[in-house]
Amino acid sequence: MAEAGAAGPVHATFVAANVVRIYGEPLAEMPTDLYIPPDALEIMLEAFQGPLDLLLYLIRRQNLNILDIPMAPLTRQYLEYVDLMRAKNLELAAEYLVMAAMLIEIKSRMLLPRAAAVVEEENDPRAELVRRLLEYERMKLAAQKLDELPQLGRDLLAVAAYVDRTTSERLPDVHPRDLAEAWRSLLQRARLHAHHKVSREELSVREHMSRILRQLREHRVLEFREMFDPGRGVAVLVVTLLALLELARETLIEITQSGSFAPIYARIAHAQSD
Amino acid sequence: MLNPTEAKRIIEAALLASQEPVSLAELKRLFEDQIGADTLRRLLGELRDEWSGRAIELVNLAGGWRFQTKPEFQPFLERLNPEKPPRYSRAVMETLAIIAYRQPVSRGDIEDIRGVAVSAQIIQALESRGWIDVVGHRDTPGRPALYATTQAFLNDLGLVSLQELPPLEEVARTLELEPPPSPAQAEPAQPAAG
Amino acid sequence: MLNPTEAKRIIEAALLASQEPVSLAELKRLFEDQIGADTLRRLLGELRDEWSGRAIELVNLAGGWRFQTKPEFQPFLERLNPEKPPRYSRAVMETLAIIAYRQPVSRGDIEDIRGVAVSAQIIQALESRGWIDVVGHRDTPGRPALYATTQAFLNDLGLVSLQELPPLEEVARTLELEPPPSPAQAEPAQPAAG
Fold first, then answer.
1. Which of C162, C158, C178 lies closest to C170, judged by CA?
2. Do the domain assignments include residue B192?
C-alpha cells in the first residue's frame, strides 16, 4: 500500500529528536516490525502522541488498509504493549487504557453473529475508530506540512531598516485659535482688565514695534526716514509712527535730533553701552 | 506630483522600514491617497521583480506586503544570531493544525481528534506567539472557548489566506482506496480473531 | 566560495534584517571568517554606492553598519505611523500668547500677566523652536530682554501678519469684562502693560 511508505518517514522525522537507544546503541529508525525491545519502549512511547498515534503506527507498519482493520491481531498487539508498559511500571496514560477497552469492545462485537440485513456500513463497529484514525492522521500530516512551511523567525527574517527619527522630532502644532484660547484662559484666571484687551489695530502697532527693534538691533542707528516705507500705504506709515512713539514712550528706543530740521535718528536705548 | 520611480523608492523605504506587513490601504496613505490601488499594485509588482535576484524578497501576505529574507540564506544569517528560535513540538504543531483546519474549535474538540489531553501550555504557547486567539464561546455547559488562527499566523507562515494552507484532500484520497468491508467479509477476514 | 556579488547580497540581507548596527566582526562571522576585513569594507563601500539613489542609505556608525531611512523621506513615512502630535503645556501656550499679543515683552511682563514665574525652559522651548527672539532690552535695572514673535512663528501658524491672529474683542465680550470696542477706539488708546 502506498500510504504505508508515506507514513514511514513521518515517524522517522519526528522520532529523530529523541534518539531511541537499544542496549546503548542509537536506533536510527523506528522498528520495522511490531517487536519493540523493552529498553526502547519507554522512549518510543514518548515519541507517540497518544493511543491513536500508536494505533496508526501499528496499522501502518502492518501495511493494513485502515478501512479494513483486522481487529483481532491489532487488539492483541495493543494489549501486549499495555502489558509491557505495566511490567515496566510506566506511567500509563488513561487514554491508552480507554483505547484498549475500545478495541476489545469492537473485537467482541465483531465476533457476535449478526443478521446480514441489519449490517450496514455505519453499523460496522470499526467505523467510529476508522473515522477517528483518519481524522487524526489527516491532522498529523497537516501538522507536518505546516511545520515545513517557511516560518518567520525560524527560516526567514523580516527586514527592519532603521527609521531615523532624530532629525524630525515631532514638534507640537499650534493653531492661531490655540493662542486665543490661551489668552482666554489667562483672562478668566486673572480677571484682567482693560489694558489687556488687544485689538487688531494695537496688534499691528505691536508687530511694528518688534520689527523696528529688530531693524535697530541690526543697524544700531537709523534715520527716521529710513524706517518708513511709503510704498506700503498710508495706514502702514501711521502704524509705524505709532510704533516709534510707543517704543519711545516705553523708553525702548531713543529718538534724537541735533536741531530743527536736522535729521532725526532712532537708536536702541543705551545701545552704546552694549 | 511624484514620478513612478520616486514613488517606488518611497514604497520601498516604507516596506523596508516596517517589520510588519504593510497593507495597500496604508501604502495609499503614504501618498495621501494621491496614488490609486491599481498603480500601487503595479509598482509593487515592479518592485518585487527588481528585488528578485537578491537575498531579500518582497512577498504579499495576509496583512499586506513585506520584505523578508529568503529561507535559503538563513544558514548565513543564523551565524549572526546563534540562538535559534525553539522548534515547536509535535503536540504544539498538531494542535495548531487542528485549529487551522477545523477552526473554530474548543480544547475538547482538539482532544477528541488527538486522542490525548491538550495541556494549557500548548494553547498558551500558540496564544503568546499570536498565532491563535479566542473568537467566541460554544453555547454548551462550561461555555468552552473557541480558538481560531490569526492574521499573524498567516503572515508568519507566508500565507495570504487560510485557503493557501496545504490541502488535506490528498491525505483522504490515499486512505479511501478500498470499499468498506462487506458484511459477508466481516468475519472471515479475521482468521486470527480468537 | 562565494563570489563578491553573492557576498554582497548576504551582507545586504544581514544588515536589513538586523535592528542594531552590525559590526565588521559580526559580518566576518557571517562568512565564518572566510572573508577578510578589507574585502568586507570594500563590499560595504560598493553596497553604499549601490544604494545611494534610494530612500534608504547604508551608514557607518560607531557600532557598525546600518541601513536607515534618509531624513528627507521621513515626512512620507510618518504618514504611515502617525504619531500623536505632542502638545505644548498650558504654561508654554500662555507665554506664547502673551508674547504674540503684547510684544515686545520682558519675562517680567509675562510673569505679571500670568501671575506665576516663567521658567527658563519655557522661554528656551519657544526660542529653540525659532518662534520668539530677543528684539531689545528694556532700559530698566537688569536690562531685561524683550521678546517678540518671529517670521517663522507667522509662517508656522500660517499667518501673513500678527493682525491675522484671532481678535480678542470677542473674548473680552464673552467674559463681560468690558464693552465691545467702538470703531473710534481704533487707536491703541490703552497704556502698555507695564
1. C178
2. no
B116·A146 Cβ contact <8 A: no
Cβ atoms of residues A178 and C81 within 8 Å: no
- Dist CA B11 CA B39 (whole Å): 12
With H, G, I as helix, E, B as strand and everything else as coil, classify residue C65: strand
Q: How many domains, chain B?
A: 2
Which of helix, strand or coil describes residue C179?
coil
Q: What share of chain B is helix, strand, coil (3-state, %, to 5)?
A: 50, 15, 40
Q: Can you tell me whether residue B70 is helix, strand or coil?
A: coil
Coil, helix or strand for A162?
A: strand
Q: For residue C99, what are the contacts with CB-CB under 8 A and spacing of at least 6?
A: C105, C110, C126, C132, C147, C148, C149
B10 and B47: one domain? Answer: yes
Distance from CA of A10 to the nearest CA of C (A): 33
Q: How far is it, in rounded angstroms, from Cα A15 to Cα A29?
A: 8
Helix axes C120-128, C90-102, angle to 10 degrees: 70
In this structure, the number of other CB atoms found within 10 A of the CB of residue B67 comes to 28
Is C41 part of a structural domain of the chain? yes
> From the CA of C26, how many Å to the nearest CA of chain B?
6
- Cα B56 from chain centre: 20
- Our CA-based measurement puts residue B26 at a distance from the nearest CA of chain C, in whole angstroms, of 6
Residue at B194 is within a domain: no
Say how far apart CA B11 and CA C71 lie, in whole Å: 15
Q: Is A213's CB within 8 Å of C136's CB?
A: yes
**CA–CA separation, B9 and C53 (whole Å):** 9
Residue ranges making up the domain that contains C101: 90-177
Shared domain for C53 and C95, answered yes or no, is: no
Residue A114 pLDDT level (bands cut at 50, 70, 90): low
Neighbours of chain C (3+ CB pairs under 8 A): A, B
Cα dist from A206 to A8, A202, C50, C168, whole Å: 91, 6, 55, 15
The residue written with cell numbers 515517524 in the block is A11
Q: pTM of the entire structure?
A: 0.62
Terminal Cα-to-Cα distance of chain C (whole angstroms): 81
- Decide if A99 contacts A52 (C-beta within 8 A): yes
Helix (H, G, I), strand (E, B) or coil at A256: strand
CB-facing half-sphere around the CA of C19: CA atoms within 13 A: 5
ipTM of model: 0.65
pLDDT by residue (tens digit) across C46-102? Answer: 999 999 989 999 999 888 899 998 888 888 888 877 666 678 888 899 999 999 988
Q: Which chain B positions have a beta carbon within 8 Å of A143's beta carbon? A: 90, 93-94, 96-97
Look at C54 and B18 and tell me if their CB atoms are within 8 Å.
Answer: no
Same domain? B123 vs B63? no
pLDDT digits (tens, 9 = 90+) for B3-51: 888 899 999 999 999 989 999 999 999 888 889 999 999 999 999 999 9
Cell matching residue A98: 480507554
- Cα–Cα distance measured from residue A142 to residue B109, given in angstroms and rounded to the nearest whole number: 16
Residue A152's beta-bridge partner residues?
A156
Grid cell locating B112: 477528541
Residue A76: all three cell numbers together: 492483541
> Residue C40 is part of a domain; what is its CATH number?
1.10.10.10
In a domain, B107, yes or no: yes
Return the percent helix, strand and coil in chain C, to nearest 5. 50, 15, 40
